[in-house]
Each structure stands twice: as structure tokens, then as C-alpha cells.
Inverse folding.
């Protein structure tokens, strides 16, 4: 049933219905509301049995999740920004150990300079750590992706990160159909660990692996990620029939079929983009939008199909790689056959700067007329730049 | 089974296993013991850490009826025991990272609790680097939450696995690969020191103890005692490292014993922040006897004898002896609570190096 609810709360309620058994919490904006809500659910007994562990750092949060998951408990935590980077070492570890932890990342910029507002720098910085990365376009998707995330994580013994834009989604009140307990229970069976620490059948988890087998371990990790791509569409189908609503799990194409220009983006900016594209279409410009729900593993086949023969790709990046430019663009350039296609990287919305329809229209008009630079920072304030130059 | 009688091993004041009833002998003398850490691992000859881990785990297995899960920090113990595809562990064993073993153990404890597996107990372990330095925040968090974990630190007083670098538990003046025996103050600094057991006591957790591999009955009984309690518990075991200390492989146990007999490593038990028992020194030795068999202290004797430094170390040992009342029959200073152990009593003279050597700050470390 649709009802207005804050994004963080919708996620907390949904996560609770996934019956996590160990929830670890360390505060950082804009993730905090999620674990606060969960703590209340656990304390009130509405989420039971569950151990809510207040830890001393994000590094400990992920470590507690690792221990819990390896001991057969469904483990969950949430973080953002500096917290995600503080976890980095443990993130690679959770993935390497094949532990199906699910974590919400309430995306936020990384300092310095310190900035609590939204962009994708945090999750993008961890794109190669071996976690599945899913990006929510709106709060309904944010909630639903957690349910699918737990199922996928546990089926394939791999950790899943659900990314939702900080503030823009976490603090926004939207109408969301929070999945109800009975339906979630039908979709998500109890956690069956691949291997578990148990005195009755002792295993050594986390052994040291030398050069003779390390490459093979990594190869298998890659193969496992590719299995995710095969499995996801089937899970999405099951989800749709169980919950009676569709969910995009790999990509979400919008008016791409006959588009000669496709704008690729992730997360909540897709709403604004679709709106803009509707306007441009009305003006006779054949533009489409391709949302990437899954960024890791990179859904290559689905992207190729969705982009089709479009001759212009504009990647709207919400993070960037200093010294190079686009992060998503680099991945796309690697998998889309070059040929006649023009590729543009547009860095937008860093540190919470609003991405407006007007700016997007202007940028796309420039792309159509061949005036767009290969790497563009949207709405760059030249006056501020000059002022800084004078100061330095 | 908790054992309150103190035993002395062959070589000191012998009450050997053979003189004891079978149930009171060490776990290691029992051919049907769990053998948690099997032989064939790749530790150096005479490795104190391998010995310590074996005693600790087998004792913990006995105490828990084999219902035990182990978590291990990165370090020698992890590396020498699990070269893929082999493992030396016959207990459920998990290694994650260098700095997170206490937190991982907390996660294991939380999972066992929520899964209603209260019969299974958790033992975390790491070297002094993993425990006293990089994992210290996680350890403190685990203590403060009171998670049901026994954490054991195998203190070989350095980062041995990466090539014998200094850790927060390295004693003053010791040579390591990052505190070389050169310059006017060779070896490690004479600083404030960092006593993990005393800091653990400051958390007022149910049980904190120190032990060495020179007294197996004591070590095992402390593990058993710790396993008989719930909540966060801490055991700090001195485990000489022949490679890093430059001691003879055959002398590991003797060196550990000398650390105790000199007063440099006080052996005690504490509950909820109060010292409840100490292992008295029966045969006191000058610190020199402990320092001499170790190459890491050779620069204190060659080319010239550094009486100033040796006296400084002796002062630390003397202070430990006073603080913890390690000499039977002698009046000792307040040892009842951790506050007293770290501070000067009014009117009490500090005979530590601080008052003697110019440029050295603060009281000398406790161990
Ligand atoms: C974050 C991190 N930094 C450094 C290392 C390298 N490292 C591995 S083991 C180790 C030293 C271990 O020393 P200690 O904990 O005292 O155990 P020991 O080997 O002496 O038993 C270090 C520095 C690491 N694994 N992780
Ligand atoms: S270096 Fe030291 S602690 Fe490490 S295995 Fe060798 S003797 Fe043991």
C-alpha cells in the first residue's frame, strides 16, 4: 500500500522485514536515520530476534558484520562517505570471504573539503572492491532493491551495496509501498550460509593464499559476479510476480529505442533527466535516458542492447576521477564499440549542487550542435574559479 | 575448572605434572587433548607464540567442552598456520584483517547469541601489534560493550611477521628493525609505555590477566577461569620470539621465565579493575640476566656496558615489584585498583629512569 514516508524510514522498515539478525551502527550523515529507525525497531521488539551492535567506527561495523555473517547470521549495516572509505579494507575482505552482507550507502561527497551533501564519490571509490553495487532511482527502488539485495547476496554468497542518494532520497518523503512481512517472507528464505563457523564441523575461513592460487581465487570471484548478471533478471521476474510491481535490476532505459542521443546516469538524477528528455522530445529532439541500476558487475550486454545504434552518448557523472575525468564513462568506452559514436563526459551535481532541467537542456543542446567539450563540468562557476586564482 | 593453587614448572621450583592427579595436569600432557593447533605449521623453531596459542586453545577447548569459535588477527600466528591449501586449525577459525579481530569476534558473539547458540564460546587472538596498536580501538569497543569474548594477546613485543618492527609493546631500549641500536639512545625509546592489561582493567571488565608460556599450569588455569566467566575478558601472554629477540630457540621458556623473575613482566589477575592475585617471584634475578641472552639488548653490553640504561630497566622492574607486590613477605604499594598502578603515591619516590636521565619524560612503563 502506498503511503508517504521518509526514504530512510522506508529503507529501515524494509530492511527490518528482511529479518536481519545482526545490525551494526555507526553514525554518519545522511545515513544516520536508517540505523536510528532500526535501533528503535529492535529495542521495541518489532524486529526480533536481532542484535543491534553500536560500534566504535565504521571499520568495526563492517568487521562485526563479517564475524556475524561468517557465523551464520544475516548481517546488515549502513554508511556513507568518509565512513565507507574508513571501511575500505574490510569491504574488500567481506567480498573476498564471500560473505553476503547487505549495506545501504546513503551517497555523499568525500572531503576535503568536507561536504555532507550528495554525490557518488563514496560508492564509486569502492567500485572494484568486489561488492555488487545497485543504485536506486527513487525510494520505492531503494526499498525494493534491499529485498532483492539480500536474496541475491545469499544465493551467490557475495556482499551487496544498495546506493541511494543522500538527502535527495534518504530525507525525502515520497509515497512508497513498503513491502509487507508476509510477502517478503515468501520471497526471501532464511539465510543458508555457504560455510559457517561451527564447532561441529570446524572450517578455516580466511586462510593465507600465495601466488600459486591467488589469481584463480580472483578469477572465481569474477566468474561469480558474472553469475549475478545471469541471475538478476530471473530474480526481478520473481520479485515482480511476488510483489506485483516491476523493478529494474540491471538497466532502466527510457525512450531509448529510437534515440540518436542517450544520456547515461545513475540514481535520483534520472527523474530530472527523464523530465528534461520529455521536453526535448516535444521539441523534436530524439533523446533517451539509460539508467544504470547495477554498476557492479557492469551489465555490459544490457547496456549494449539498450543503447542500440545511438550515435551520441552523454554520461552524466556524479563523481569524477581527478586527473582523468569520468568513471562511468571509462567503463562505457570500454564496452561500447567505438565506430561513429561520440562520447561525452559531463560531471554534474558534485557535493550536492542541484542538477537542473535548464542546465541539462542547455548541455544537451550543445551536444546536438557539436559544441559540447568531451569533458564538461556542468554549471561551473567561472567567477568563483577566478576568485580562487586571485587568492592563490 | 578453576585452579587457584600455583604450580611451578620443572626448571624453577618443580611441581611437575607427574606429581599431580591426572585431572590437575596440564591439558598438553593429555594425549587425548583437542590438539587445536596441530603440528606441521610453519612457525620458527622455538616460537613462543605457537606454544602459547596451543596451550591457550587446548585449555579453552577443555573449558568449553570443545564448543569454541576462534577469530585471529593478521600476524605470525595466522600466516604460519594457514598457508593455502593447508590449515593447522582443528577449531572453527576465522581470519579477517590485522586491525579488526576484536570486532570480528564481537560479530561472531552477536551471531551466536541471536542464533541461540549460547553453548558456543568465542576466543579472539592476535599479536601485540594487532592488539595493542592497530586493533586497539576495536578491542576497547569490545570491552566497553562487554561482548562475550575472551581476547588473547600473544605479546612477542614487536611486529614479528613483517620483520621485527617496533610495536607499542616493545620494551624500552630494545633493538628492532625500526628502533636500531645506533645513536646516543640506541634501541626503542624510554617513553611512557603502553600497558594493555592496565588499560583493559580501566574498562572494568570481568577478567584481565597476564601470563607467560613459562608457567603452563598458570596459563591454562587462567584460560579456564576466563572461560568460566561471561562478558569481555582479556588475557595477555608473554611469548618470546627467538627470531625477533635473538634468543636461542631452546631458551624460549627460560627467557619467558626470566622476564617474570626479573620483575619486568608482572604476572597477575584482575577482576572488574582490581588486582585480585599476583604470581610472586620466588627467585628474583637482576634484569641483566634476562637481557643478556637476547641479541635485541646486546648493545647494552657491547662494546661498552650501558649501566645507565640497564639501571633504568632495573628501575622499571623494581617498580613493578613494588606496585604488584611480587616479592612475598614484602609490603607492596596499592595494587587493588588500576588507578593506583598507574600513578605515584603521595610522598613516594620515583626511582624510574625519569628522575635520572635528562630529557626523559614521565614514569617508566609497567611492562
Ligand atoms: C592495515 C595493515 N597494516 C599493516 C599490515 C602488515 N602486517 C601484517 S602482520 C603485521 C605485524 C603483526 O604483528 P603482531 O600483531 O605483533 O603479531 P606477530 O606477527 O608479532 O605475532 C603487520 C604490520 C597489515 N596486514 N594490515
Ligand atoms: S618470527 Fe617469532 S613469533 Fe613469528 S613465527 Fe618466528 S618465532 Fe614465532
Amino acid at each position: 500500500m502506498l503511503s508517504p514516508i521518509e526514504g530512510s524510514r522506508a529503507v529501515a522498515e524494509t530492511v527490518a522485514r528482511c529479518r536481519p539478525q545482526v545490525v551494526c551502527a555507526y553514525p554518519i550523515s545522511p545515513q544516520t536515520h536508517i540505523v536510528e529507525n532500526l535501533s528503535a525497531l529492535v529495542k521495541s521488539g518489532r524486529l526480533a530476534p536481532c542484535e543491534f551492535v553500536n560500534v566504535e567506527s565504521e571499520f568495526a561495523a563492517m568487521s562485526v558484520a563479517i564475524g556475524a555473517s561468517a557465523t551464520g547470521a544475516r548481517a546488515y549495516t549502513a554508511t556513507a562517505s568518509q565512513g565507507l572509505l574508513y571501511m575500505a579494507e574490510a569491504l574488500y575482505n567481506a567480498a573476498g570471504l564471500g560473505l553476503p552482507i547487505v549495506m545501504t550507502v546513503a551517497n555523499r561527497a568525500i572531503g576535503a573539503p568536507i561536504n555532507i551533501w550528495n554525490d557518488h564519490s563514496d560508492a564509486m571509490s569502492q567500485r572494484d572492491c568486489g561488492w555488487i553495487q545497485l543504485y536506486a532511482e527513487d525510494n520505492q527502488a531503494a526499498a525494493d532493491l534491499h529485498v532483492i539485495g539480500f536474496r541475491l547476496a545469499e544465493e551467490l554468497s557475495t556482499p551487496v551495496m544498495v546506493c541511494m542518494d543522500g538527502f535527495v532520497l534518504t530525507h525525502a518523503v515520497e509515497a512508497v509501498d513498503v513491502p509487507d512481512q508476509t510477502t517478503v517472507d515468501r520471497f526471501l528464505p532464511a539465510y543458508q550460509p555457504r560455510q559457517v563457523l561451527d564447532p561441529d564441523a570446524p572450517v578455516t575461513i580466511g586462510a593465507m593464499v600465495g601466488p600459486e592460487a591467488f589469481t584463480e581465487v580472483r578469477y572465481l570471484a569474477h566468474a561469480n559476479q558474472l553469475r549475478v548478471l545471469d541471475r538478476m533478471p530471473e530474480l526481478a521476474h520473481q520479485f515482480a510476480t511476488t510483489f506485483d510491481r516491476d523493478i529494474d535490476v540491471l538497466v532502466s532505459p527510457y525512450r531509448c529505442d529510437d534515440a540518436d542521443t542517450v544520456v547515461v546516469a545513475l540514481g535520483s538524477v534520472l527523474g530530472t533527466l527523464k523530465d528534461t528528455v520529455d521536453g526535448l522530445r516535444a521539441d523534436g529532439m530524439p533523446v533517451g535516458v539509460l539508467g544504470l541500476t547495477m554498476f557492479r558487475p557492469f551489465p555490459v550486454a544490457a547496456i549494449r542492447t539498450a543503447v542500440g545504434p545511438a550515435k551520441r552518448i552523454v554520461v552524466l557523472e556524479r563523481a569524477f576521477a581527478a586527473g582523468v575525468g569520468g568513471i562511468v564513462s571509462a567503463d562505457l568506452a570500454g564496452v561500447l564499440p567505438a565506430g561513429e559514436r561520440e562520447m561525452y563526459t559531463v560531471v554534474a551535481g558534485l557535493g550536492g549542487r542541484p542538477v537542473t532541467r535548464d542546465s541539462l537542456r542547455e548541455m544537451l543542446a550543445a551536444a546536438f550542435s557539436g559544441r559540447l567539450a568531451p569533458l564538461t563540468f556542468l554549471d561551473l562557476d567561472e567567477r568563483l574559479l577566478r576568485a580562487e586564482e586571485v587568492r592563490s | 575448572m578453576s585452579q587457584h593453587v600455583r604450580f611451578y614448572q620443572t626448571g624453577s621450583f618443580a611441581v611437575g605434572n607427574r606429581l599431580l592427579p591426572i585431572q590437575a595436569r596440564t591439558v598438553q600432557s593429555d594425549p587425548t587433548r583437542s590438539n587445536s593447533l596441530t603440528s606441521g605449521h610453519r612457525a620458527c623453531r622455538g616460537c613462543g607464540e605457537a606454544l602459547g596459542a596451543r596451550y591457550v586453545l587446548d585449555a579453552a577447548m577443555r573449558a568449553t567442552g570443545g564448543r569454541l569459535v576462534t577469530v585471529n588477527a593478521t600476524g605470525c600466528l595466522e600466516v604460519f598456520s594457514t598457508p593455502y591449501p593447508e590449515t593447522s586449525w582443528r577449531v572453527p577459525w576465522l581470519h579477517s584483517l590485522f586491525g579488526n579481530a576484536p570486532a570480528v569476534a564481537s560479530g561472531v558473539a552477536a551471531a551466536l547469541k541471536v542464533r541461540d547458540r549460547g553453548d558456543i564460546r568465542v576466543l579472539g587472538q592476535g599479536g601485540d601489534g594487532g592488539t595493542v596498536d592497530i586493533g586497539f580501538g576495536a578491542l576497547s569497543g569490545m570491552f566497553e560493550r562487554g561482548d562475550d569474548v575472551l581476547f588473547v594477546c600473544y605479546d612477542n613485543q614487536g611486529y614479528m611477521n613483517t620483520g621485527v618492527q617496533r610495536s607499542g609493546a616493545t620494551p624500552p631500549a630494545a633493538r628492532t628493525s625500526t628502533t636500531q641500536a645506533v645513536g646516543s639512545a640506541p634501541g626503542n625509546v624510554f617513553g611512557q609505555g603502553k600497558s594493555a592489561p592496565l588499560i583493559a582493567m580501566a574498562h572494568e571488565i570481568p577478567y584481565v590477566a597476564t601470563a607467560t608460556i613459562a608457567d603452563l599450569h598458570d596459563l591454562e588455569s587462567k584460560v579456564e577461569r576466563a572461560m568460566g566467566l561471561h562478558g569481555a575478558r582479556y588475557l595477555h601472554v608473554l611469548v618470546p620470539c627467538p627470531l625477533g629477540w635473538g634468543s636461542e630457540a631452546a631458551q624460549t621458556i627460560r627467557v619467558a621465565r626470566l622476564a617474570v623473575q626479573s620483575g619486568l613482566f608482572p604476572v597477575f589477575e584482575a577482576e572488574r579493575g582490581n588486582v585480585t592475585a599476583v604470581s610472586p617471584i620466588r627467585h628474583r634475578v637482576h634484569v641483566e640476566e634476562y637481557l643478556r641472552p637476547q641479541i635485541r639488548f646486546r648493545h647494552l653490553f657491547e662494546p661498552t656496558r650501558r649501566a645507565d640504561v640497564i639501571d633504568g630497566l632495573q628501575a622499571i622492574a623494581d617498580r613493578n615489584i613494588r606496585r604488584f607486590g611480587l616479592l612475598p613477605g614484602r609490603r607492596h604499594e596499592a595494587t587493588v585498583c588500576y588507578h593506583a598502578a598507574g600513578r605515584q603515591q603521595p610522598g613516594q619516590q620515583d626511582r624510574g629512569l625519569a628522575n635520572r636521565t635528562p630529557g626523559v619524560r614521565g614514569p617508566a612503563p609497567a611492562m
